[in-house]
Amino acid sequence: MKELETIAFREINRYRNDDNCIIIDLRDRQLYRKSHVEGAWNIPYEQLAGAVPMLPREKLLILYCERGGTAMLAGRELAKKGFRVKVAVGGFEH
């Protein structure tokens, strides 16, 4: 299993323009439409398992959700599958 790292949510912007990273918003589509980190992919947690084959293994995945707990669960799952993952703890700041 790859190591799961955490970052403070306020650090997420420094990954926005990095071509080696994908920021993933795990919240539902309605919350994503309301507001999200610019450039983030929206993959609601409930749909993550089905999206795994589409995720590029060579990129660092930065995950966030409403409060941080769901992103931690998803991060552990993806790390077990061999992905490089960082979880933004603290959740999305509205």
What's a concise summary of this model?
By secondary structure, the chain is an alpha/beta fold.
List keywords for this structure.
alpha/beta; 94 residues; 3 helices; 24% strand; five-stranded parallel beta sheet
Walk me through the structure.
With 94 residues, the chain is of the alpha/beta class. It has a domain at 1-14 and 35-66 and 83-94. The chain is 23% helix and 24% strand. The protein has helices at 29-34, 48-51, 69-80, and strands spanning 4-8, 21-25, 41-42, 60-64, 84-89. Helix 1 links the parallel strand 2 and strand 3. The longest helix has 12 residues, at 69-80. It is globular, with a radius of gyration of 12 Å. This is Rhodanese-like domain-containing protein. Residues 17-92 form the Rhodanese domain.
The tally of strands reads 5
Could you give a short account of the major beta sheet? 5 strands, parallel
What's the arrangement of strands in the largest beta sheet?
Answer: 1-5-4-2-3
Question: Roughly how many Å apart are the termini?
Answer: 33 Å
| Distinct helical segment count | 3
Shape: globular
Oligomerization status of the protein chains? single chain
pLDDT averaged over residues: 93
Write the layout of secondary structure elements.
Layout (H helix, E strand, L loop, with lengths): L3 E5 L12 E5 L3 H6 L6 E2 L5 H4 L8 E5 L4 H12 L3 E6 L5
Parallel strand pairs: 1-5, 2-3, 2-4, 4-5
